[in-house]
Amino acid sequence: MFEEEEDTDAPPFEIQLEMDPENRMWRIMATGSASTLLFFLLDASDTGIVQKLWEEAKFDRLVKYDLGEIDDRNYDAGTSNWQS
Fold it and tell me: What is the pTM of this model?
């Protein structure tokens, strides 16, 4: 059977996600191997970077347009149209 080898010489992996509270501009700084960074960026789980940025984008839109609660189920991600 296949046994996964433990990589004890793995290069360091570090991600910093910062937001400037004055203008809500985000900065992502990342250090790591290409495969590790790719895995991190493509993580679609509830705790991944995409989910975090999606939540922040919804908040920014809510504040900018004062839309009230945004219901994800009524948003067509392929366009900028909100459906009722």
Answer: 0.56
Over its length of 84 residues, how does the chain's per-residue pLDDT go in tens digits? 555 555 567 678 899 999 999 888 999 999 999 999 999 989 989 999 889 999 999 888 888 776 555 555 555 555 555 554
Quick one: residue 73, left, alpha or beta (phi over 0 = left, psi -120 to 50 = alpha)? Answer: alpha
With a CB cutoff of 8 Å and minimum separation 6, the contacts of 19 are 25, 26, 27, 56
CA–CA gap between residue 75 and residue 38 (Å, rounded): 27
Report yes or no: 69 and 61 within 8 Å, Cβ to Cβ. Answer: no
